[in-house]
Write a structure and sequence with these properties.
The protein has 666 residues and is an alpha+beta fold. It has 21 helices and 22 strands. Helix 2 runs antiparallel to helix 3. The protein is globular.
């Protein structure tokens, strides 16, 4: 009886990615001086397990590479050879290539054959004792092809993340002559075109011996929002439009019967995973999302029943009311339990940075120590996936711009090794992620000079906070020269837009000579939130409770009008700007003669929101507006109330930012 092994592929790919992460972490630990025998054993077991699974499923290129890697690891753990830098470089390079081979097997994105052969040659050179101590980049440089074919297919939602495909293509032109052909097969008819969606795709031919890493750096911001294929091509290259067929994924490899050695090798892995299987199961993210959606609908139904019961005679509805209270408690417990399934430790993001820091510091000739805190802090999986790219950019900025070269640090009386700190913690209803360094800090005068040069509006006698805020302006850069790492003015503005799209905020603190600290504040989840329901000109709005500080009835004596600032409210000696939600959203309904104010804090600033009535507090299910309509200023989403009406959820951070812009616009 034949067995269809393809149904096990997804598990193999997922376990192999976890194994590669463990291998990379172990190798970095060994390079830093760890001599724990269990570290090298864990790396060996991961390689052994990947090899066994690859041989079972017929992924010969993966099995062949891991066989050579396993041989080297076996000699190291047996004490037959010393751990040398060339060996670590070769093994880390093999981890990168194995990731590419996994993508090829899983998604059909062809791996670079030259890179596969190069890493095999390096591993064999280490085994034969002929390996040079040259860095990995130098070893790969000799293998650079004469030209590259790049298949670039943006996701339809690419524009919404603040990215522009044409800007990326222009950046590629800085690397060498570029042949460009657009693919129009996804372009709909004129009546169906949505200006907010990306429809075009491109086949690009980049001529010249360009390192693959530079091409990957160009696409670093959109790697999760596009389909990307990078492979060598011959020169002279045919027009990219004629080479589309070459970009087609390779045919799937037929599953081969397991080799005896592979079957024996897989057995220990299966035994070691037996205990894991008893305490955990793998569940598709789609199933968890569907469950969360159902719980959200249950929350709406519970609110609807409560609203209906409020109109019944209390004498006849006592038992119903008690049952609804119990249902509300159970619904909240169920919601928290289900959302907990989607929560992952931020270590899922943090663990990619040791390798990034190692490679980048070597490339720049800097000595860098990475410190991580709060790795066990949990965050919604959807947020974890979207926060990775902004964090990568901030860490790269810290290494490239923030930390000084060893001789400069020594001259300033600092440790030659700079420190980058990644920390995560819970604060109220938010998670706060910090990226900090102990480098030179931001240069206030240089930032102001660049702002004046670019015609960016700056307040009179700006505070440090206002000056640091200028680095988030589109196209802003203080780099003296354009490199493959920085200088094109693309980055910090996209960081802020991406964080704001997640309902979060970004703040920068800096001290000359002591370093820079960037704080990212995010909601714990995007699915359900606790909200304060308010009435404004007959309309119902939801204020996220995590931003609300207090609500009060203002006295006329505490309200002033200040030139250039508009109305302000004195609250315990502090003057806060007043923003009428009715005026902001353009509501024309009847207003209260004695409005209330709700004091909220967002983006590091307090403001007083003027409303007509406080309706109450309740849990609300967040529905995305952009997917069904478009982005609306000052609105982060919508929800369905118990009576079936739709209520908008106020974007507190957006209101604060709009208020800051008003004086500048005036």
């Amino acid at each position: 009886m034949s067995m269809d092994l393809q149904r096990f592929h997804a598990t193999f790919f997922e376990e192999s990615r976890e194994g590669l992460d463990a291998m990379e972490a172990g190798l970095l630990s060994l390079e830093e001086g760890s001599r724990d025998p269990e570290t090298i054993n864990s790396v060996f077991r991961a390689a052994h397990s990947i090899k066994g699974g690859a041989a079972t499923f017929g992924f010969e290129s993966i099995a062949g590479l891991t066989h050579v890697l396993e041989t080297l690891l076996d000699e190291l753990r047996a004490g037959k050879r010393a751990l040398e830098p060339a060996a670590v470089d070769a093994m880390l390079g093999s981890v990168d290539v194995l990731r590419a081979l996994l993508r090829e097997a899983e998604h059909g994105q062809a791996a670079d054959p030259a890179a596969v052969q190069a890493v095999l040659a390096r591993l064999n050179a280490v085994l034969s004792g002929q390996a040079a101590a040259a860095p990995a980049a130098a070893a790969q440089k000799e293998e650079e092809p004469e030209a590259w074919h790049i298949g670039f297919t943006p996701a339809p939602s690419l524009f919404m993340s603040g990215n522009d495909p044409l800007r990326i293509i222009r950046e590629l032109e800085h690397l060498g002559p570029l042949q460009i052909a657009a693919r129009l097969e996804r372009l709909p008819g004129f009546e169906q075109i949505d200006p907010m969606e990306a429809y075009l795709a491109w086949d690009l031919g980049l001529i010249g011996k360009v390192p693959r890493s530079k091409i990957e750096d160009t696409f670093a911001w959109v790697v999760d929002d596009c389909e990307l294929e990078i492979r060598p091509m011959a020169v002279p290259a045919p027009p990219p439009s004629l080479a589309v067929e070459d970009a087609a994924p390779a045919a799937p490899v037929a599953a081969a019967p397991p080799a005896p050695a592979a079957a024996q090798g897989a057995a220990p892995a299966a035994n070691s995973a037996a205990h894991e299987a008893e305490t955990s199961i793998r569940v598709s993210v789609d199933k968890v999302d569907a469950l969360i959606n159902l719980v959200g609908e249950l929350v709406i139904t519970q609110a609807m029943l409560k609203a209906v019961s409020g109109g019944l005679d209390a004498a006849h509805a006592e038992r119903l009311s008690a049952g609804l209270d119990l249902l509300e408690r159970n619904t909240r417990d169920l919601q928290e339990a289900v959302i907990g399934v989607r929560m992952l430790p931020v270590d899922a993001v943090f663990r990619r940075f040791p390798r990034l820091v190692r490679d980048l510091s070597t490339r720049l000739g800097k000595q860098v120590r990475l410190r991580t805190l709060g790795e066990g802090t949990e965050l919604d999986k959807g947020l974890i996936e979207k926060i990775a790219d902004p964090l990568v950019h901030l860490v790269r900025n810290s290494i490239d711009h923030g930390l000084e070269l060893p001789e400069a640090r020594s001259a300033a009386g600092k440790d030659e090794t700079g420190t980058i700190t990644l920390a995560a913690s819970h604060q109220g209803g938010h998670i706060v992620i910090e990226v900090s360094d102990d480098g030179r800090g931001l240069n206030r005068e240089k930032i102001l000079a660049k702002a004046a040069e670019r015609g960016i509006s700056v307040p009179d006698n700006p505070t440090d906070t206002q000056v640091w805020d200028l680095i988030f302006a589109p196209g802003f850069s203080t780099a003296d020269a354009v490199t493959d790492l920085s200088g094109r003015g693309v980055g910090m503005d996209v960081v802020r837009r991406n964080i704001q799209a997640l309902g979060g905020e970004v703040q920068v603190e800096s001290s000359a000579g002591h370093g820079t600290r960037t704080l990212i504040r995010l909601p714990l989840t995007l699915a359900i939130l606790d909200g304060m329901t308010v009435s404004v000109a007959g309309e119902t709005l939801i204020l996220p409770l995590a931003y609300v500080l207090e609500a009060l009835q203002p006295q006329q004596a505490d309200i002033r009008t200040m030139a250039g600032e508009g109305r302000v409210l004195r609250v315990r000696g502090e003057y806060l700007p007043i923003l009428s939600l009715s005026d902001y959203y353009g509501y024309a309904g009847q207003r209260s003669e004695d409005p209330l104010v709700v004091v909220v804090e967002g983006d590091g600033q307090k403001i007083a929101l003027e409303v007509d009535e406080l309706v109450g507090q309740q849990q609300v299910v967040v529905k995305n507006i952009e997917n069904n309509y478009r982005r609306i200023a000052g609105i982060s989403g919508a929800t369905i109330l118990g009576d079936g009406r739709v209520a908008l959820i106020v974007d507190i951070g957006g209101l604060v930012r709009s208020l800051r812009a008003l004086p500048q616009a005036a």
